[in-house]
Amino acid sequence: MKSADTWLSNPTLAYADWQRREAAGANRRPFAARSIVQHQAMFEHFRRHLLAARTTLATFGPDHIDAFWQSPDALGYSTATRMRYLKLLDRFCRHLVAVGVRESNPANQLVRNGHWPKDEPDPIYLPEDADARLQAWVQPHDGDDLAALRSGAMVAFFLATGITAAEARTARREDLQPGTSTPYLRVPAHGARDTRTVPIGSFAVPILAEWHVRRQTLPVDGELVFSLRASGEPITDMSFGKIVRAALMAIDFEDEDLSPRVLRNTYCRRQLLAGQGQDEVSKLLGLASTRTCDRIRATIAQQL
User: Which ranges carry the Tyr recombinase domain (predicted)?
Assistant: First the structure.
């Protein structure tokens, strides 16, 4: 019973303990250490989604999984990534049923209906002309109010560094250094990603430098780069998504995905167009493999 209670009182601890002691892949072999770290990060992402929806591991249903795909970070997930999530949900939900936390597995039918893709869709990115328009859009202007300055800085942050929404949400002021001779952002290690230092694109320096100064004058607790509340709480993924979507619509860019992921893909493609290799760009993105860069480089080859 103690194990069942922990899944409800401390889901993060319960998942980590179960993953370490019992979880295994389809071949019944324990997962590799790196896979365990990745799975824990995926679990935490979904757990935060349930927390925002005011439900628990014991009560969420297929509708909550469907809603998860519509969240800003998950909106652009490939079919393969969705299948990885479904398999993870199916594994731990079967365990929750076994230990009496749940009566049924909401992921069972979804994972049965799913399939691994033979070909993944092309990643969505801003073409060079749209990238240039957005770079111009984020420039600061005299008379910008706080909301306009903050929104422009947020968009520039994504477009100039290629970080994820989760990384932007926890970015701290001390890690953003737009006033140095070589402006950079330090992204601390998290999950399966090591600490990395990302040079900031020159187009973003004016607005990030102005926001960096302005942020220090605001009556906001904490050291986060961005916060919507005086209490210093992190900005939500939904707020990031709304701000990025508004910016992309302002430059007349429309596609099925208008999330921060588009700006991350655009950053990746811009670096590849500038002649950087896949290994180097993958490291800037915090990725262990070049798979993402390989897919985006393919979009460049298609234009040649």
Answer: 121-304
For 58, the token pair is: 């014991």
CA distance 268 to 282: 8
Positive/negative CA dihedral, 12, 76, 119, 114: positive
Domain count across the chain: 2
Task: Evaluate whether residue 120 is within a structural domain.
Answer: no
Q: Are residues 85 and 171 in the same domain?
A: no
- How many residues can be counted in the chain? 304
* Single pTM value for the model: 0.66
- The CATH number given to whatever domain includes residue 273 is 1.10.443.10
Query: What string of pLDDT tens digits covers the 304 residues of the chain?
Result: 456 788 999 999 999 888 877 755 544 566 666 677 788 888 999 999 999 999 999 999 999 999 998 887 777 677 778 888 998 999 999 999 999 999 999 998 888 887 655 556 678 999 999 999 999 999 999 888 999 999 999 999 999 999 998 899 999 999 999 999 999 999 998 766 788 999 999 999 999 999 999 998 888 878 899 986 767 788 888 889 999 999 999 999 998 888 999 999 999 999 999 999 999 999 999 987 888 898 899 888 766 5
The residue with tokens 């039918």 is 109
